[in-house]
């Protein structure tokens, strides 16, 4: 049986803490606590308090220590200390790069690799022109009896709150982990991502070494019932696309616009953009793609996935024609599938020209790319050169691409660069098949859902998926999962927009999940032998 079928096979997982009586009884005791009204109100209070610290993340952030706007994070730290005294008084808390935070709950068994759980403390700024459109003010943290309102309730202060509440509750209940648990909180996930996660990664790598974290649970997509029939699909991302911001720059001689050439730099740049858009990346599906496994699961368990797609998915396991037809059928059924089937490009920024009577000397555009799982940065660069090259020749421009001279011309220069030096290969794929770490995650998801109050799903399917946004702690472990244990309908209005609000019930569900995840990991044997 090929790898493709593995995700489908592995649906028997169910993980409840069991070792001895301690973990099981602690699990039940905490589950009881989490079911009380007092606990729910306390969670709402704490989440509200965290929301009221507007730790906004800015694209134009200056350096820490120079840009005063970073100081909000100090306020947030103080608030977290007040809200979670057991965590901050008894565990090791280290701030890296001033505001990113690593909290270590040291385990008694040093041979067990640590489990790492992450959240980010920053939020997307509230657009001032929209603040009147919020039902409750964006930094109110108001709890209306069902929803907690405010920027960050869904992304990602719910994780900050849930992780800290879980650990606070477990400390109070007397739990002492055998496996070390690391909580890591970034500070600029919503902007450059250069000030938090990389510092955290380096710090942990220095302490534990490469590949010495057992697994990392990072933020990701919610679970939902996308194929009807009340079949819940939880799709932890086990792969992520690559990334390239392309800068295209055309430099041509200036001069007075009364004696213009037939094409100015702006016209030339326009041709480059038109060519790029005339050659969109071809969608393609490979059997080794994570998306292929995702579709296999949907075909096997999704009641309302169209029969034609199901049939193609079954046939595609061995039949190449069916594989090609499957990607076409998926696109027709859901055009957004393009993001999972191909590298994508989006021309997002353009600039050039200073005056109406002067020829533009430097014009440029930025093109954002998310690189398909089966492709690479260099493959993308080569493709861009092959499309842009003929334009350079047509206008007699010198083409310099990613540090190499490609063609020479005497009318100016066309330059292609990695705009911010942030190119990223597609992530190494997280092992799924026969992977104990993945099994613990999948089993915990199923157990947490099945035992949650009000559970009415008909089946729970855990399927690996492809993340189309990038973030990474690649050096620390191969076992990185991007997943949010929350139902998609617990978000009032999605992320990064007005009326961000989350259902309190779902927050409690998240805490139940984290608790069980920690307990299940604590009794798992995964140690040095981690891949
Ligand atoms: Zn986020």
TrEMBL record:
**The entry's keywords:** Hydrolase, Metal-binding, Protease, Zinc
MF (Gene Ontology): metal ion binding; metallocarboxypeptidase activity
* Annotated binding of Zn(2+) 2, by residue: 120, 155, 218
Gene3D superfamilies given in the database record: 3.30.70.360, Zn peptidases (3.40.630.10)
Give all residue intervals belonging to the Peptidase M20 dimerisation domain: 238-391
Signal sequence annotation: none
Gene Ontology process terms (BP): proteolysis involved in protein catabolic process
Q: Which family does it belong to?
A: Belongs to the peptidase M20A family.
The protein in question is named Peptidase M20 dimerisation domain-containing protein
Species whose genome carries this gene: Phlebiopsis gigantea (strain 11061_1 CR5-6)
